[in-house]
Design brief:
With 166 residues, the chain is α+β, with helices and mostly antiparallel strands. It is built from 4 helices and 10 strands.
Length: 166
Amino acid sequence: MQSTEPETWEVVVGYEGLYEVSDTGRVRNAHGRILKLSPTSNGKYLKVDLSNARGKRATKRVHRLVAEAFLGPAPAPGMTDCCHNDGNGHNNAVSNLRWDTRAGNIHDKDLHGTNFKRNVTHCPRGHELTLDNVIRNVWEKKRHRTCKKCKNEQNQAYREASRVNS
């Protein structure tokens, strides 16, 4: 069901006089032509190609254009993630967007079930990622899980190579 509210348009930050973005996530040029949006390479978000006054092209994610135009710039240095409240990266309505921290965005992904890394059950070599077969690398900046069997195989191969070369 479509809203009866009129669509509101604001200038695209950095492209003043060239493009506008609506509160529903549509983008148009200065002549009023609605631009075609396309999915990002992973399919999660929508993007659009824009050109500045000098003709330099840039690809921008639509949710960030909407957030910057309607919510303003990121409110604090740590709050730079533009989050989708419903977990749908194609729903770029301003009512569905907010600025948050990276941790807040990851928490959202966990709530919505869109954090694919948490849903991974096997390593690339096919070993099951159970509690007994996972090393948690919490001391690194990126907290990820490492397959214990793969790590043991790497260590074994390194030890064998060291013996051969010595």
